[in-house]
Specification:
single chain; alpha+beta; eleven-stranded mixed β-sheet; eight-stranded antiparallel β-sheet; 16 helices; 23% helix; 32% strand; binds guanosine-5'-diphosphate
């Protein structure tokens, strides 16, 4: 199909992807046709920005003269690895966008590696060339090194380079050009057309469509998004769905859409090479294919990542429930999780032990944290338990998932890093010294070992470590891992925390709250330096004895408390604890609030040590 190109964009958040796609749309005339389009088309949401990754793959299409260019966004984290592979399956080349002063960052490494392994030809865009600290030549060298490191082929190393000022909508083949902001993106369009092959296929051939994404809308129901690999898909036609199980199920395609800008246009027919959105096939799944009913030629199904981590989501049973959120019942939770399943294929939901709880399975801590954060912003309140690893049984053996972990950090931290990973059963498999003061270490580590690892490594390396992991198969279950070595400081009564009480308690460990915070019995207010939990009165007022004592008030010096974010809170909790999430607050609590009914944590630890000693 000579008039089509399909490309995926690989970029670190903030390197200018939105700005560039925006400018490409503008210059391709899509904006003029439809002036109501908002300015920032592929804009990433807050969650993506905070975490430096793209979460959702989105599609855009634009025209350069009479050639249609479909652009697929790629997620930037290995928790979304399945999504990355499916996005890359849609395209015939990639556009690697790199900030000309920051250079390539490890978050994009995973996707780039997958793209190179899939033999996709790259076009490299060095963006923000107008920045005073741009260092295009050095960054280009870094990109070559990265490509070589990722086993790029000779052909892939021969990539075209565009020097770009996306803000000004200018691209040049030479580094000097766009700094002044003159010019257009013409050289970029030309490079895409010249270097990315057009899709092959026979429009008259047997129909083959692979479904790589799902969408949902109240009017149309489930919408399958995919690429037509062969033949022509026609509205109203009778087709066969090749299920993941291998079965062929007849279906009728009631509505078809193609992409234009960020909009979708209804279409009568979509020919091979192009992307299509199909409504009316209710139970179609990602990875399945659509083919001819009379003469079926199904495509190899695409596998979706197996979940490796599970977390219990349950209703907020705490005394402060409903203060900040509006969606708090188990029915609210069930409806929301069911809706998530319609489009998020890498998540599974099972009923929990009680009617109020659900077991949510996903690919990693980050993926589940993003779901929780999204729900919280939508007004939900809920409790979540400690993440547990999904184990499997195969031939009488208990198996657990393993990851390949890559840590990039200054060499001064090697010692502390090795120590931290050793206790998590990480085994080093490779160490590369760039000679730049930074080293890259690779480990094999049980997925369990990753829970809480990110924040620990960031603390250990003063925020300088870059951490990345990829699912690496199933290994024999390695037995229990050490529990959190510390206990919790637990409020023993409801009320508001006081500076005086905090001052009394702070020497025991690290506080998670400041003064004037509403607490309840069983709420965790800090981390005990010892392994036992400790009940504390955090609401105590200073007795007004005599005038002189007031000078002692000035002696109250509070150590700043540690505010835990969602991921840190999830990483902190032990088996008998929950994170309480509301739209405004993240609290930690014991599962059993009543201190008289609560088994002591140190007793549990002692008991498990005795078992080991036997
Ligand atoms: P994304 O997260 O990759 O989509 O990045 P954005 O397109 O949102 O851009 C991030 C920031 O970089 C924004 O403030 C842009 O205005 C800015 N930006 C994008 N392209 C350029 C450029 O070529 N030069 C400069 N100086 N800034 C740019």
């Amino acid at each position: 199909m000579p008039n089509l190109r399909n490309i995926a964009i690989i970029a670190h958040v903030d390197h200018g992807k939105t700005t560039l796609v925006d400018a490409m749309l503008r210059q391709s005339g899509i904006f003029r046709e439809n002036a109501t389009l908002v300015d920032r088309v592929m804009d990433s949401n807050d969650l993506e920005r905070e975490r430096g990754i793209t979460i959702l793959a989105k599609n855009t299409a634009l025209f350069f003269h009479d050639t249609k260019i479909n652009i697929v966004d790629t997620p930037g984290h290995s928790d979304f690895g399945g999504e990355v592979e499916r996005a890359l399956r849609m395209v015939d080349g990639v556009l690697l966008l790199v900030d000309a002063s920051e250079g390539p960052l490890p978050q994009t490494r995973y996707v780039l590696q997958k793209a190179l392994a899939a033999k996709l030809p790259p076009v490299v865009v060095l963006n923000k060339i107008d920045r005073s600290d741009a260092r295009a030549a050095a960054v280009l060298d870094e990109i070559y090194s990265l490509f070589i490191d990722l086993d790029a082929t000779e052909d892939q190393l021969d990539f075209p380079v565009l020097y770009c000022n996306a803000k000004a909508g200018a691209a040049h083949r030479e580094p000097e050009g766009p700094a002044a902001g003159k010019g257009t993106l013409l050289p970029l369009f030309e490079a895409i057309l010249a270097s990315i092959p057009s899709p092959v296929g026979d429009p008259e051939g047997v129909l083959q469509v692979q479904v790589t994404n799902l969408d949902y809308n109240d009017f149309l129901g489930r919408i399958a998004i995919g690429r037509v690999f062969n033949g022509t898909v026609r509205r109203g036609s009778d087709v066969a769905i090749s299920k993941l199980s291998g079965a062929l199920v007849p279906a009728k395609l009631t509505k078809l859409f193609t992409f234009r800008g960020l909009e979708r246009d209804e279409a009568d027919a979509v020919i091979c090479g192009d992307m299509v959105a199909i409504a009316g096939v209710e139970d179609i799944q990602i990875g399945e294919s659509i083919t001819s009913l009379e003469n079926p030629a199904p495509l190899e199904p695409l596998l979706v990542d197996e979940p490796t981590l599970a977390m219990v989501f349950t209703v907020n049973t705490g005394p402060l429930c409903g203060r900040e959120g509006t969606l708090v019942t188990s029915r609210d939770l069930r409806t929301r999780l069911t809706k998530e399943l319609l489009t998020n294929v890498s998540i599974r939901v099972e009923d929990g032990e009680t009617t109020d709880s659900f077991r949510v399975l996903g690919r990693g801590e980050l993926q589940l944290a993003i779901l929780i954060e999204t729900m919280r912003r939508e007004g939900y309140e809920l409790l979540v338990g400690k993440p547990e690893i999904v184990v499997r049984n195969a031939g009488g053996r208990k198996l657990e998932p393993q990851e390949l972990l890559v840590v990039d950090c200054p060499e001064t931290f090697i010692g502390i890093l090795m120590e931290g990973l050793g206790t998590r059963r990480g085994e080093m498999v490779k160490m590369v010294n760039h000679g730049s003061g930074r080293v890259r270490l690779e480990f094999r580590i049980p997925s369990r070992g990753l829970i809480g690892l990110r924040s620990q490594l960031l603390t250990d390396t003063r925020g300088t470590a870059l951490i990345h992991s990829i699912f690496d198969g199933w290994i024999d279950y390695g037995g229990e891992m050490a529990l959190r070595p510390t206990g919790a400081l637990v409020a023993d009564r409801p009320g508001a925390s006081t500076a005086f009480a905090l001052w009394n308690v702070q020497e025991r460990g690290e506080m998670f709250i400041g003064p004037g915070v509403d607490v309840y019995e069983g709420m965790i207010v800090g981390e005990n330096a010892r392994e036992a939990d400790m009940d504390v009165n955090i609401t105590k007022e200073k007795k007004q004895t005599n005038m002189r004592a007031s000078s002692a008030d000035e002696a109250i010096r509070l150590v700043p408390h540690r505010d835990l974010n969602l991921e840190q809170a999830i990483e902190f909790i032990a088996d008998d604890e929950y994170v309480e999430i509301t739209p405004k607050t993240i609290r930690l609590r014991k599962k059993i609030l009543d201190s008289k009914k609560r088994p002591r944590r140190w007793q549990q630890i002692r008991a498990s040590q005795e078992v080991k000693a036997e």
